[in-house]
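Aim 2, interim progress. The first record below pairs a target sequence with its structure tokens.
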Amino acid sequence: MRLPSGVFRTSVSGGFGPLAALANSSSPDVLLVPGFTGSKEDFLPLFPLLATRGYTAMALDQRGQHESEGPASADEYGLDQLGADVLAVAAQLSSPPHLVGHSLGGLVARQAALSQPDAIRSLVLLDSGPGPLVVQTQLRALVEALPQLSLAQIWAIKAGMEAELGVPAPPQDVAVFLEQRWLSTSVHSLLGMAQVLLHAPDRTDELAALVSDLPTLVMFGEADVDTWPVEVQAQMARRLGVRHVVIREAAHSPVVENPIVSADHLAGFFLEVDGTRR
């Protein structure tokens, strides 16, 4: 996929090995963590939009995702290991970053924040939930299929089902990228991260004890129904004692579905945090 002007490919050290990244600064203000089956490219629309609002960024492939190396054991993709990777990256930056985690990435970002709150400047939970994925049917079907079918076979089944349902096909270059990304993702990472989504502990109360010193925002698309329903995410924000932002005309991926509004809210939150700390 074509990168926005000023965005370059790089790599940073994680707890297991190099993590592939995209960045528009060697010393970014914002660190972006993708969700299950996602990658750093999910955040491409944000780079120019945040830059015009005064913020540089880095987006990661987590271990085993897309272009990042990963261990050959599903047991090495738990929240402890994934959170430690994020902290390892944050430690390489010149100052603590604003940390944004999408979906599974939100659980990982929360883990990092709970483990070492001083390592980050703020926390944004983007279309993420308090504990296990609420809607688990498709994920459980994938977990059952992975030991029996190749990634290519699973992709073909998925494409066929979407065609039958009349799901609009993405542009050709995007379609090619999505298939290549899926085929390059580690099966071990899929199995390990799936267990995180199925069994993650609810640590909302622990995080709530930190938010007075760690500014936190909950943000989600208004039509997010396939993961943690919006009422679950709103309730999590209330339990945390922080505000939540609902992105109109968006579902589970508001950064892609409504990037301008998403960037406005993110940059506005970052400015509030930075203003209070100056």
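The second target in this work package is listed in the same format:
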Amino acid sequence: MERYECNGQAPEAASSGEVGARESKGRRDGGSPVTRREVLLGIGGGAALLGTRRLLPEHRRIGESGRLAGEALRPRSATSTLVVGFVSPQTGDLADFATSNTFAVRKIRETKAFSKGLKAGGTKYDIDIIVKDSQSDPNRASEVARDLILTNRADLIITSSTPETDNPVAIVCEAYGVPCVSTVVPWESWYAGLGGNPVKPTKKFEYNVVFFFGLPQFGTCFISMWNRIHTNKVVAEMFPNDADGNAFRAAFPSIAKAAGYKPVDGGAYPDGTTNYTSMISDFKSHDCELYVNCPLPPDFNTFWKQAAEQDFKPKLATVAKVLLFPDDVKALGSLANNIATDCWWAPFAPYHSYLTGETAAALALAYQKETGNQWTQAIGSTYAAFEIAHKAFVESSDPHDHQEVANNLHSMKYSGMNGEVDFTSGPAPGVALIPAAGVQWKHGTKGKFTDFPYAMFVVDNADAPAWKLNGTLEPTNP
């Protein structure tokens, strides 16, 4: 059974007094105090954590340990149904991340593993999937996660697509002791959002895991492409004042410098900025021939159009968080030609389903035939997250036991629709790294997956050597 629920209102923000109380208690992994700025910036503007705190009943505030204090969740009655919640940004600025989610969830429901139920501990269980919309709003994400736990009695929650959704959902799950699988979020942004220190990533979050890549993988992917284009090695950096932007600002410059590049920071601008003239002028004055970013999609569209109007045309643009999906490209048209980005799943990847054996190519083709739309890389990560949930359940003696399921997640190694996922070997506890291929958007060509006005071509596999190239890296602006 699959349900889509979108009701509810955004929670009220926490008071300044509550903020201060939280600040005085927080500590970094290394022992030094966590500053207010780090708390706020680590979770996508700060509203997520504060909104989560206000959502909790008074007798269940988060204590020193990070877990809820006071009365525990009422025990779940014996039932043969497992509830899986899924939270993603179906509407709002980040909606392009979720355009293929309805299809991916339906394909999961059609698998024998989900449609016929699963066996764990000698008992057969049906699976109820409940889908919620974060509306691209951290407060809303917190609210629907809490509703899944307290109203729908979720046994596990899956969340996908950027810190604005993943972080607040993960925070709520950790507080209430409910297993949570996150994806499509740089692990550093996720880890800092939960209260960890990515520089000293020793802290384990008991109920949370994430599979995606991080800043070093972005570096391998992007810099490998930079090295193949002749430039002056000066890089324009467009990093906003949000969770992803601050994660990039903290780590990416040193990665670029170590590779022999000179970064130029355009400044920590607020999300929703509409005039980038000053930033563009700064990039032009430094003669930046390369460009890297991680903004909200609408902000990049505004910036890139203004850059073209003001004759800022870097030889190679490598973008993160934007131009990941066909709808992003449609909004820019010809200005998207030969812009490079990262890719974590594609029909060209040598992946197959853990549940059915279906290949990535077959899944992408099914999406195109059934929807009439161009494949998107979010199909694979969404599908894989449900595979991970299934595996965590079937390996439990009691899949309603949140602690046991969470332990299964942390010890999991498996190969599925998004390739090898190993939560035991990441740079931080509960983190599984997946590879990022370098791709460019180009005019489409004849072929099952490229016969569109603009199509994604794999042009670099430095971080994903198992992927085959099907395109040639070219300058964004010759």
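The longest helix spans residues 378-394. This observation will shape the mutagenesis plan for the next reporting period.
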